[in-house]
Structures
1.
Amino acid sequence: MYNMRKLLIFLCLYLSFFCISAYSAPQEVKYAGFAFVGNFDDIATRFKYTNALNAQKDENGRSVFDRDIQKFIQDNASAMQGINLKIGDESQTKIAMALAMTRENISVVNVDDVFKVVVNLSCNLTFLNFDGMKVVATYPIYLEYIDVRKEAPDEAYKLELIKRLFFADDFSIMKKLKDRIGSIGLKNDAVLNMKVLNVIVEDEAKANLQEYKNDFGVFESIVAQRFSDALSNKLNVSLLPYAKDYLGGRMSLVFSDARVQDFQIPNASYGIDFTLRKLTKELYKEGIGDDAFLYGAYTTVKFYDPDLGRTYWDQKIKFGAVKNVPKLQKTTDDFAIFDEMTGMVMGEVIKKIQDDKQFYKEVVTRCLNK
Amino acid sequence: MLKQIMMVLIGGLLLLSATVAHAEYKQVKVIGKVETKFIRTATTGQKKLALEDARKKALDKYISELDSQRVRILNNVIDQLRQNLSTYVPEVVALDDGNWNDGYWSIGVQASINEAQIEEIVNTYTKANVKKQGETFLSFVFVAREADSVRKFDGKKTERVADSEAVKTSESEDGASGQSEKVAEKITGGSVEKKADKISYRSYIPEDIGSKVSEVFNKAEFSVVEPFEAQIDPKSFASDFVESDEISDATKKAAVDAAKKAGLNYLAVATLDVGEQIVDQATGMQKVYVRVNGYVWDLNGKFTKKICSVGPVQFSGLGEDPKVAKTNALINAASAAAKDLVDQLRLKQSM
């Protein structure tokens, strides 16, 4: 009887300890490093400058991405929610975290006597489950940089620019990551997720996007990443990578040491279609020294479930802003303004979502990273 | 009393361990419905009923997406599955707050299917049926072949050239002057005869796959007998497979006679055709495709019957070098074929 009582006390204590540790212990996650997303053979062309930087190794055979990103993660890992990040240590965990680069885009346009440089960089802080080779969650990070220069940018300038846009203290991928790292955590299984399924750019919008006239697919991917970044950042919802970038729902990660791993992207709980209907510019007011133009971006955003055929939110949203253009200015950089409008209309969509209490409660709260 | 408390505690501990183990679930989306004739909303009880309906539908949807063999096995245990829905469909997460339409309140849910538990019930069911028949002896012969040399033939060209000549003359009216012109016409044509490349094969018994295939059959409660124990000669299968896509009747007859004499119940045969290695565009690694054909003979009756078959299906394998890629492809193809054959055999045995 006495032994039985002792055993009972032991079991009670063990159970209490187990409950506390199971639900409060941080999830052990291995740091897997920096990776490129895509086919191994395409890395050199899709990520021309990042790949060139990554090929420059120090005396320990490490690139700036291996070394500086690891150091950054090491210094900031403690800010992540409920994650015990293991860097270089032995760990039995099957969950890994990698900073995966999804897009590098540099376009140079000659406008009159200046050169306009537009850079888009997209990365995902991706959590992977090696047991089942699945993508668990992603935190999209999008960075856009527009500059106007007198001289045509050469290859050395572009290399240096990409490096700066990754690591600079004031404006870079690392800075964006640092701002967000406190809200990064590994969601529990009950949380649902979202995925941008389609980005549709209609003809009236295409007419004002001549920079991408040769490949609107690039622009669609950029919009998808930018909208995912906005949703993740402003609403703190769980997101999966843009469907059309990964045919067959598989994502290949090419790590710095040329290791290639293939992961399955699960189906999302909610799908999103983002339609950019038109980008407009109208003369608003003619002045003496300058003219005022009204720029506008028109979108339709739909949250739905393609499997069940249910639509949860389908709204037409527009955003407009007046810009003054000096009469003496020979050329106006409309693209930069349309690009800004596209970003602003996304912010307007987020506001509308936040204001729509019913939709927010019904769908957004179910996807919150908490 | 103490004993009961302890039982509850141990139960709780086991339950928690299972919860924390993060089982691998398959997600299925369905709509659960409940009839609410008089009000446009659902009571707590009705919501529970709608979620229960969603669980049932999730299970049905999951089963409907499986291959026909598996569907037939699961249909035999469907009552057991439905009675323990919370085991097989452990989680249902609501995707919305519910809608009312036409006297029905419905809710979209994302349900999790515990595939490990489903596999367990399939195994238990088939094991029980196999046991009824006593120990089942099975042997298998899996042979592979790959191109040894390829003799390519250029197209044989036959050209036909036909020449003809015509003389054109013209004269002036007075006949004093005139001209004559010689016109030559050349007609060409012909045909190209193409001959298929002559491929010579080498065949072999891939040792690497033996243990993997044995594992599949053993797990399904078959007693695997090595071919040499039953006097079956795998080499004769291999030499037939060099010459032709088919195994000769003589080899089949000899193997079946030997297997029957040794008291085997089943003999499984598979041929694996190894393709050329290529570089995988996605990974930069070597990739090899293997095409597999397989079948099982039932040796139990007076006559030997081919009771299940698989293929032709293709599988690929990746590797740092062609040898590793080939081995991986063979293992993938052989184990997939063995699993398919086992599922079919289980079904036949349970009928």
2.
Amino acid sequence: SQVVNRPTQSSSLIDYSQPKQYRIGGIAISGSKFLEPIALTSLTGLKEGDMITVPGEDISRAIQNLWDQGILGDVDVSARTEGDVIFLTFNLTESPRLSNFRFSGINKSQADALREKVPLQKGRLVTDAILSSTRNAVREYYIEKSFLNAKVNITQRPDSVLPNSVVLNINVDKGDKVKVGEIEIVGNEAFTDKKLKRQLKNTKEKKFYKIFTSSKYNRTKFEEDKEALITFYNTQGYRDATIVSDSVYKISEDRLGIILTVDEGQQYYYRNITWTGNYLYDDEYLARVLGIEKGDVYDQEELAKRLTYNPAGVDVSALYQNDGYLFSNIEPVEVRVEGDSIDIEMRVFEGTQATINQILISGNDKTSDHVILREIRTLPGQKYSRDDLIRTRNELAALGYFDPETIGLNPIPNPADGTVDIAYSVVERPNDQISLSGGWGGPIGAVGTVGLTLNNFSTRKMLNLSEWKPIPTGDGQRLNLNIQANGKYYQSYSFSFTEPWLGGRKANSLTVSLFKTIYRRGQLQQQSQDGAESLLNVNGGAISLGRRLNWPDNYFYMNHSLSYSRYRLENYALFSGFSNGISNSISVVNTLGRSSIDNPTFPRRGSSFTLSVNLTPPYSLLSDRGDDFEYIEFNKFMFDASYFINVAGNLVINTRAHFGFLGTYSKDSEIGPFERFKLGGAGLGGGNVFVGTEYIGLRGYDDESVINTNNGTLLNAGGIAYNKFVVEARQLISPNPAATIYGLAFLEAGNNFGNYKDYNPFKLYRSVGVGARIFMSAFGLLGFDYGWRLDTLPGSTGRNADRGMFHFIIGQQIR
Amino acid sequence: CSNFQKLLKSTDVSKKYQAALEYYEQEEYYRSSQLFDQVTDLMAGTEEGEKAQFYRAKAHFMQGNYILSEAYFRTFHTTYPRSPLAEEALFMQAQSLYEQSPSYQEDQTPTLTAIEAYEEFLVRYPTSERIAEANRVIEELYQKLDRKAFNQARLYYQLRYWRSAAVALNNFQKEHASSPYSEEAAFLKLDAQYRFALESVPAKQEERFDQAVDYFQSFVDMYPESQYRREAERVFDAVQSALATLRKSSANNQNS
């Protein structure tokens, strides 16, 4: 019944060689049992009185229309003519239609996943073709999961409620999971089996000790692995290597074996490399940039990388591509092969310089054009440069509004007038964070938090109600609200707002922030002498201006901020001899930084450093004042540097160094309890967040525990100088923008000093460890680390059992 | 449980269909669409199947589910091209797309799709009484595209990237010649070109000022009554005097 998809125009009166116009005199439907003739007639798209051509398209289209509904088993047409009037009869065969289907033999989540994959549609006809493609879809799903022996059995039964309908039961017998038992490689002499097996990235032997390695067998992955094996040979100069044969055989129900036979061929070397067609650069210069010497092992992949695009260094095409020569092209041609030596001729086509004409943006269904356009470094009227393109990608990624892995850069050349349009495409991702949490906050007890961070806010659209979906977005402004409270004892409110392009002409950002914190302690906690309640109240605000610099290069930026905090203490022992009164802190922070990091979520290359100087007015130099804390005086210097290098694939090494120093202006005055450093643990900060304390992590040690002193007051208040060094290897596990996951291993060392007399940058507390991070746009970065300390802190017992510990990490940490 | 919940669980197709129609009449579109979603596919080929499909689409449209209503109206129109409701369905399909067209500062792919849909409607039903409305909406959507393009080009002017502003505004003029923003674009282009020439190296200044003269002349030709006329003339005077100085100094250089 599958083939009768075309009209059978059974009338001897119709001359097929001469199409003729007829008027429809009537349409009849025969053979319908459950379906209604009038409805079917209207589905044909024809009606009485229409003029049609026979033979012609009208009738075939009518049949196609009926057929497209997927509700009929068979359709054909017969016709009778009287003069120029035609009477049509559609002869139908009804077949049962699907009213429902269900899965058995598998769990609900797999059934739900399969429901999306099978081609079954309720109300549609159940044909053999549909049944067999359903069977295949289910089998493929399980083969993907390495159930190679999965059996699918589909049974039909009539639906008792709906006439002419069937219910399908799809029974799945998954069978055993089949794994790769052994891999044998034959014909290899230059490399060991072990080395070659390592190239098969997704096809691994099952071994009891390989608990983290998947040994699933996946046909498509295996094909990719075979190509990878040949690529590996090619990179080693074995240009002719091939896989002669591969066979997969069954060892047992749940194990299979693989035999790969390779023909290695011989190893080749470069001999002479010559250049033709180059006018802008001479042969010698090009050869030096290429960096391949006579006698080197012949490696096509490396050659292509050094010619066309080398993310880790210079390549020959960059000479041209960064100077407008968009149309340039270099083709390496093997001009002679003698024995094991290959002569290459580089055929260079330089072309003309291209000027950028238009910038096209697509995919921004939330973010406004100007927010994207103002970050784009390729400007109309400028010469084309590949570096600018890549820089733009990094800048767009740094905004955080788009999935960094899918930012598209597409130069569209118009060779006719020597211009190029550049099309950027982005995929928006959610970047607002809402936190609602309750937790146990140490000495304070239960704490509730309500937080809202809007990273792409628009105050301009606030007045337009239709833009509230659910909040006005798209202008790149940042709004942050946070409330933390535990009834009477602890309350904290903070608010900040940032406009990244104040005035819309230059990337000068303005941030305004306000905060208020109240911290009370009751009688039970023995903080006050006379049993009265103790209280610490901090109110403050800050205003800061940021700008990008073009000198020394355009990765630099500068930030100036003015902040004010007012501390009010009642019976609150903050520091020796200071428990009542009011402190005012007015300070100016200047930060100079440079950042060339390529991706904010998982940086692969680039570096960043910041130097920040935080100064209060030098009261002690201006007037003779005692050691009261009415106007807090300090100067603070912080330095942070971070460097990323992509070692291989998704493996990145990050090295960091951090320093901080706190001081006063006059030799005599004491450094107060404010703005000190606390080192150790995850660095999240717990207790006194409100006296400007800097919390810095040092994994493998308890929170805030690392300080090189025995003085009790200092142990409590924190140190005045710290340094910390980190080497971290990161491996990207899942680049999925909804949940970016990476694993890491670290080695770090740091120390924190209570006074400058003891300061010694080489005396460090070290630790090692491993961990993982997950970035979800709605929650930010979350993770855990297991740290193992290598040194013992003074005063601690140093038992081996206490050396390892877990740290939970919330949020991106700078230090 | 409520009557509606009972209906949802019932297997009686015609009862559900009747209820869905009633809910539609009572403007309870959410309930109506839920019931239509359950029965419409099962009713294909029955007499009410046609009506069910149409009202399902409408019920979704009324709720603002424009992605769904667009798909359902389109299916309706391809399935029942000769139905008396077909014209309305095609128009409603276009309108579903129109509703999805975003603000001018966002990606305009949906706007272009909507324009295509209205244009298809104009071709198919050239005698429809909805023609005027369709033409009005097409005009509105084109103006949105004009506004977007103008904003993008003007941004370079605001950022003071003068060369880019001149290039981008020139492109805007070429591609959106009849837009209401063309006049402003012509003036801004002139001003951007003048400032670009002013900041150029001496060797290139003359050529670039000359270009500004051209831009001025075509501006006056096209918009003799322009509100920017006076400012444009001021720019032109500045260009003229800059050119005069340049020519004088180059003449001096040649003489000496």
3.
Amino acid sequence: MTLPPVFRAAIGPLRIMMQDRLAVIGLCVLSGIIAMALFAPLLSTHDPRHINEIEDGSVLQRGAEGWELRESLGPLALNDADHHEGESIIVGRGGMGWAREGVGDWVALELPTDVDLHAVALSPEGRALVVGDDSMILLREGATWTQVPAPEVVRLRGVVWLDAASALMVGTGEEIWRLDTATGAITEIDSPVGRGFPLQSVALDVDGTALIVGERGLAVRYDPEDGSATLERLGSSRDLNHIHISEGGAALVVGERGTLLRRESAASGWSADPAPDTRAMRAGWIGDDGQAIAAGRNGLIMEWDGAAWQLVPTESERHLRALLVVGGEMLALGSDRFVSRLLPPSREHWFGTDHLGRDLFSQNVHGSQIALLVGFLGATLVVLIGTNVGLIAGYYRGRTETVLMRTVDVMYGIPFEPFALILVLLFQPSLTIVILAVSLLTWRTVARLIRSQVLSLRERPFVKAARVAGASDLRIMYLHIFPNVLPLVFLELAIIVGVSIIAEATLSFLGLGPPQAISWGGILHDARLSGAWRTAWWWNLPPGILIMTTVLSVFFISRSLEVVANPRLRARQ
Amino acid sequence: MSRQGYLIKRILQAIFSLWIIATILFFLFRMGLPDPTAALVTEGLNAEQRAAIRAQFGLEEPLWRQYVLFLTNAVQGEFGTSFSYRAPVADIVWERLANTMVLMLAAIVLAYAIGVPLGAWLSWRRGSRADTAGIFFGLMFRSAPMFWTGMIAILIFGVGLSILPTSGMRTLPYDADGWWDKILTLDFLWHAVLPVLIVALYYLGSPLLIMRNTMLEVYGEDFIEMARAKGLPERDILYKHAARNALLPVVTQLAVTIGLAAGGQVVVEVVFSWPGLGREILNAVRTSDFPLAQASFLIMAAFVITLNLLVDILYTTLDPRVSFR
């Protein structure tokens, strides 16, 4: 079978390359990375710029030093918890419930609903009430949960047992409902305000009345004796989120913007405490011995040390919604959607996440695009300029050569990296400027190499023959001499692709890469800037390994191209 | 051409190169930073003071007068006062340049001291597993960006094992009378270990591979056959006969490397907080400290050109076959 000469010419070098094991590995790896760049949107598991959030049934426990993260209870946020006589129940989003006896393991409850549950209360008789969205009221008697029908659809936020057979529930439309568990009848109680302010929480006071708190500092006291609901002043107009009253009569109300309202005993008045942090507080707990805890968003936990509230070291991301204190064990529960920052590699995020919760695997996959774009475009530009300058200088000689080669000499006096820095810094980073900065100086090597090759080629008989045959200078240069330097050109191309990729990574690492673009150097820049790189190994390792692998594969290919370009090497290997 | 003629020609060429670079630099800065004093507004300078500085740098003059002023000042070594340091630029730049050179030269010497014998040894064991491994690691360190290897080294030796300092040239605070007093201490050596090692590993690849390849070429020469025929031990043939003759391309590469050494490795200086000239340029341009940026770059270029020139002259002495073209 006869092949066209062009193919036959191409197959020779290819066969030589195929004999070099390292070159074959290089070709395979490089094809893989090119494929990665082309199919980046398909390959990446997340949007590389998206700030990822997750929901988690987080449990924090008070340890000796601070609050420590314990094993999560499922993937859904936990909203409220209550305990009585060693039994504890936690309820959360999506109809999630957990129960345990004593300090045993938490067991998931089979609740007949999947709406979000917001509050739970255990009665002294061992019965339990859970309330939530869509007027969900679940009553447990014995071991069975039954749903209590509600007169209208409201979102219930708090529940408390008034006595053995009746409970009080509050909702976001200023609803105050009294449930008679024997009959299942619900009595709606008129609020003294009646403007639809959301009520968030309710607790039983020592005198048998119930204290309800809600938005805009609203506090309502319900007296089950005469069924009256009266407005109470706590001394705050901020949104109140949670109330807890201890058995001895101490009370704590927490709310937005670090609102902390405390009552030392049933007899004393309410006082607003200065908070060390002004974020929203979602849960409070107070004991009879003066101990008190408040928890809120972003892992915020404060403890009362007898004179002032102190911030306690905790995990800093999760949003806490409930506190559960059983004997000496203290638990803080959450968490609604929180930014998943600096997560180590997991099934969800293969390379972990960065300080903004962005998926690093996707960033690394997308980073290949800029690296290869700058690498190949820059190298093509470099080789194009360098080859032509070398050809012209070597072929024409004389004054042309002097001018061109002096230019190259001058360029050798310019340090590459600082020049690229100045260029990018002076003219604002953009893809064009980065490619220019990478390629503007590098062609000096190519020009020198090609020129020296052309110098010897132009004296060969075939060039003289072409000249005698009347070929023009351009024809001799590009049709006769150029094919003979082509292997050298490809060799230089391969080397400069490697150099350009490193140069782009370097500029990006210094924060001077193409703006808005995701690149491997840029990932390392973020890592260094955030300061987290000293602990988050999953952030540092992949981009560097990818740069190294890409450049290494290009170098492997260039080594076998060297054999093609320089037949003398062929004999000895 | 006579040797003297060659020298004079090379020196004239170097001066010409420097002039071209200074010109490019001047116009680059005028294009990129039309009003360099804009950065001074944040420092609380009012319009009048800014005008004074503009006059001091001759920024109100026509462009060609500015250019002439810039050139005459540069020739006299007068680079003005740094905006951010409030000190003469020249003093800052020379010290930073010395810091860069001590790092680079140490790294280059280390790389060649290890790379040349190792390359010779690899060529002797060509085709073996050690040879493949040598090529692989040589190319690997050449492919890995230095800021990354630097970060990993800091993680391992600085953070993980905490046996080596990871930033600066000395433990702070320290007193030193002059530059040499700062350098000639154990503490400095201790600080230099990691950055020097990282740069050296990067440079190791070229002497290693060049030495190996040239040695392979030399093995084919007749005088090696001759040495073998004489029954010389293989070790002697390798190091005394072959290696000496294979040194020339390595020396050429060394010359080029040293010539460009003043350019430094900006990222290594940044990662290890090494107060070098490259890092100074980066900071200067970032803070729009244009007298410092301009002078740093010009002096760096002058040093590169001078080193190139010296290396060229040395090289002609070393290898008489190089004609005085």
